Amino acid sequence: MAGECPSMGEDRVVLVTGARGMLGSDLCPVLAEAGWRVVAADLDEFDITDPAAARDFVSGCRPAVIVNCAAYTAVDKAETEYHTAFRVNHRGARNVAEAAAAVGAALVQISTDYVFDGTKEGAYTEEDPTNPVNAYGLSKLLGELAVRVTLEKHYIVRTSWLHGLHGKSFPRTMLTLAQPCPGGKPRSLRVVSDQVGAPTYTVHLAKALAVIISKPCYGTYHAVNAGCCSWYEFACEVFRAAGLDPEVTPIPSSEYPTPAPRPKNSLLDTSKLARVYGHQLPSWQKGACEFVRLWRASR
Ligand SMILES: NC(=O)c1ccc[n+]([C@@H]2O[C@H](COP(=O)([O-])OP(=O)(O)OC[C@H]3O[C@@H](n4cnc5c(N)ncnc54)[C@H](OP(=O)(O)O)[C@@H]3O)[C@@H](O)[C@H]2O)c1
What we know:
Layout: E1 13-17, H1 22-33, E2 37-41, H2 51-61, E3 65-68, H3 82-103, E4 106-112, H4 135-150, E5 154-159, E6 162-163, H5 170-177, E7 188-192, E8 196-197, E9 200-201, H6 202-212, E10 219-222, E11 229-230, H7 231-242, E12 247-251, H8 271-277, H9 284-297
Parallel strand pairs: 1-2, 1-3, 3-4, 4-5, 5-10, 6-9, 7-12
Antiparallel strand pairs: 8-11
Helix pairs in contact: 1-6, 2-3, 3-4, 5-7, 7-9
Bound molecules: NADP nicotinamide-adenine-dinucleotide phosphate.
NADP nicotinamide-adenine-dinucleotide phosphate (NAP) binds near residues 92, 112 and 160.
C-alpha cells in the first residue's frame, strides 16, 4: 500500500528513496546536516515499480530534488531474477523520473561501474561507451537511459564497491570471516586479486551527493573514493585497520566463479566531479578505516 507523504512543498525538501538501504541510511542524515528537509521513503512508503504510487507520493511532498537510492542490488541473483531486477532498476527509475518531472523536481539517479565491461586500460570517464557484462549492469544502464530521456534536470551518479554500516558489504563479510578460530588459530582466506576498482564508503559518497545537489550542474558524474585496489588489497587494508591477522592468499577470479561475471577493471575517473564542483572524495583507505572504526564501535 502506498504511504502518505506529509504535505511540504518547500524549496529545500529532498526525497530519498531506498532510504533504509545501505547508501540511503547514511545519505539522509548527511543531507539533513547540509540544511535539507529530508523525506525518507522505502518500500513501506511506496514501491517505485508502481507508477501511480510514485506519482502520488512525490506530488504529496513536492520535493525540489529526489535522490533515487532504491534499487535491486543482488548482482548474482539478478542473473536468474532478471524480471525483478529490470522492473526495479529500469522501470522503477523511469517511474521516479516521471514523478519528478510532474512536479518539476530534479532527480539524482544512483548508478554503477557495472555499466562498463571492464576491458579499458585505465579509468572510465563519463563519456566512455557502456557495455554491461551482467543482468544487473544492464538493468542499471536502462535505468540511466530512462532517466536521461524523461527529464532534463537529472544527475546520473555512478559509484562502485559501496560499503557502509547499514548493509551487507565486502568488508563486513571479510571481518566476519576473519575472526580467529576457537583456540586462537588464525583464519585462512582466499581473495580475488585480478579485479580492480575503488571501494567507496557510503558516508563519503553521501557528502559528495550533498555537494552535487547544491548546484544545478546536471549531467553524468563518477563519484568514488580516490585511488584504486584489488579486492585482495581491500581485504588486507580492512584487516590492518581492524588489527586482525588472517592468512590471506590472492587468487584469480577463475578460482572464485560467480553466477554474474564482473568487470575486471571497475575504475571510474572522477576528474569531472573535481572540475565542475571542486570536490574529491577521500582515499579508499580512509573510507575503509572509517568503516572499520564505526563497525567496531557498533559491536
Ligand atoms: N552496493 C554496491 O556495491 C553498489 C555499487 C555501485 C552502485 N550501487 C548503487 O547504489 C544505490 C544504493 O545501493 P545500496 O547498496 O544502498 O542498495 P541497498 O542496500 O540494496 O538499498 C536499496 C533499498 O531500496 C529498497 N527497494 C528495493 N526495491 C524497491 C522498490 N521497488 N521500491 C522502493 N524501494 C525499494 C530496498 O528495500 P529491500 O532491502 O527491502 O529490498 C533497500 O532498502 C543503488 O542504485 C545501487 O545500484 C551500489
